[in-house]
Amino acid sequence: MSTATMAASRAPGERMDRFVYDDAIVRWFLLATLVWGLVGMLVGLVIALQLTNPIFNLQVPWLSFGRLRPLHTNAVIFAFAGNAIFTGVYYSTQRLLRARMWSDLLSRLHFWGWQAIIVAAALTLPFGISQSKEYAELEWPIDVAIALVWVVFAVNLFGTIARRRERHLYVAIWFYIATVVAIAVLHIFNNLVVVAGPFKSYSIYAGVQDAFMQWWYGHNAVAFFLTTPFLGMMYYFMPKAADRPVFSYRLSILHFWTLVFIYIWAGPHHLHYTALPAWASTLGMLFSVMLWMPSWGGMVNGLLTLRGAWHKVTEDPVLKFFVVAVTFYGMSTFEGPLLSIKSVNALSHYTDWTIAHVHGGALGWVGFMVFGMVYWLLPRLFQTELWSRRLAEVHFWIATIGILLYIVAIYAAGLTQGLMWRAFDETGRLAYPDFVETTVRLIPMYWVRVLGGSLYVAGLVLCGVNTVMTWRRRPAQYAETVHEAPALDPTYVPEAAPGGFKRAAWHRRWEGLPLTFSVWVGVAVVTASLFEIIPMFLVGSNVPTIQAVHPYTPLELAGRDLYVAEGCNNCHSQMIRPIRAETMRYGEYSKPGEFVYDHPFLWGSRRIGPDLARVGGKYPDLWHVRHMEDPRSTTPQSIMPAYPWLARARINWTAVERGVAAQAALGVPYTRDEVTGAATLGRRQAQQIAAAVAQQGGPAGLEDTQLVALIAYLQRLGTDIKRTPRTAGLSGAEGAGR
Amino acid sequence: MKLGDVMSAMHMSLFAQIALIIAVAGFALVVVSIFLARNREPFRRASLLPLADDAPAGTPGDRA
Fold it and tell me: Is the pTM of this model over 0.95?
């Protein structure tokens, strides 16, 4: 190992420490970012192709859309963006604090633990092991591993902060602290479950409250995983690349605290016009609109950091990526509050507009921040020149064109969907009563998305080539610069604030006190959360009970588990909003009391296919058999994948018994006989359905098949409120509402 | 009497109003305290940290 020494100026009497930064861990995370980015985006490309034509799933169960879509989102968020976050955090933290990471062992445990989690996700989601909650699909053993690895990361980060040699915590570090604190809170409380098997669990929350908790988590996963750490990286890497300090440090303080305090309230805007109480929905909207202020403050701060350096943007691909990234941040954070306004959301919700919005943020803001950082880091980490600046320029342009093609096509698709769903003819009837009419209209736009996505992936491949070629030019041995800095004085006591409150000295004191600072971040996050969570759980009028609603039969529960495993909720909602176009198309709007036994809730967030909240009893059992075998046999233009394996796969009755017992443990009112006799009850109902199918002219011998369980669940949906209240225990057909 | 009974008896808009007051007050506090501050120099030095992190120690920031 060759070494160089960064000389230090020494004050009289100061003790100087010598240290070396750990850049090996940064190199590992950087390479993992690119590898997993390619995997996650290729999976995205595959499912984009499947939406143009389902034959692209090759009728292989683990390639079907419902199973791959969570893999795509998890891979891009937690594998690509996650590894990028750790790349940026490990590089900048060491330098901003003038300290090597606290523990090399923890750094490596963090790296390998996170990669193991990603591999576990890739091995479980395609096989239908899922909790169904968006961006929190991973089952409980993996959730436990995530929590442990996150603790390792947190200990390493706070350990480094504790032994830093720079008193002041730069704004980027605040954003990292907020990320660590908030993600821990969100992950733990959204993933509280009752275990029903080695890879099966049920959320402890039900229906309305589960939906609320999920989108409290879901929205803030975007906030504290895809926004705050990247803002920290923006505040570090943009000044480095532009060789200019951040435009306004005061604005960054404002940006930080308003984001941390306001973001956490905004989750309910994902549930406008659903069975969520209106007060929560309105609160979510209000705080979402307020987010405009800090978000645009941050964007302005980022862009104005380039003051006097705009001429460099034409020559430097790193700055090009950063400028477009920050611009997309501004666009996405303008559009987010816009979409949270109820009247806009009434049009956009469940449509591809939301997909365009998130991809503008993911590909433009997150992706381009990552690429800018990678190109800036490559020469420094591999201690050689970037292999090809020209290739990086090509990457920039090809990816920019790719994003534009993607989002323009999908904005058009979203608006088309939304407008067609709510269109009425001159007689007052739905202009497009057949849902598939609206699907077919989108397919040309889906092809443009495939083209745009392909260009973006091609750009990523170019980045990979540039990385590998730069790596190949690395020196035989990396030079390790030895830095010197004076240790912090352990007897330091924060001085009394000179000038008092008006001089903002209070904040400057916090900046030097990481524990106090972290506690206040935690207080901001938890206070805001509790303001919504406590009334949501304690106010009785939030979920008026409906006497006719009773628990699922064991077979229906098994079918529900299959619905989750196949990821049906990725394409079908189960939530009819009180909007005329919806009640005319799907039936009576959904009530909060209908979901009290739904662990987890399955309202969905997107309608690639029609809503299923009232599908029960709409078609005969045989229709469902044919539809699952080949959706085109019942709906010729359908883009739904076929599920022929459901008619062959057997129900695991032991798992059914465990499932009913777990639901009972959650408070679902099953009798003792129903719990102990779950398999018997399930078999009895399955035989009835199989007999009905055979009687209707369908195949015989479907008893014990998963298809029968799924049919039982689908036939139950939305039927409770049409029945009289339950007076006795479940007994096969009675429980199934037959 | 349970906490749930108390909360159920309260008017729901109260929660939103309190939340809004807290948010606006917090925002106003941060704005006033940051932008009325006259000590520009410490902020300027803090903003230079990323530019000096590979340079000899002791240039920016206020080490104790």
Answer: no
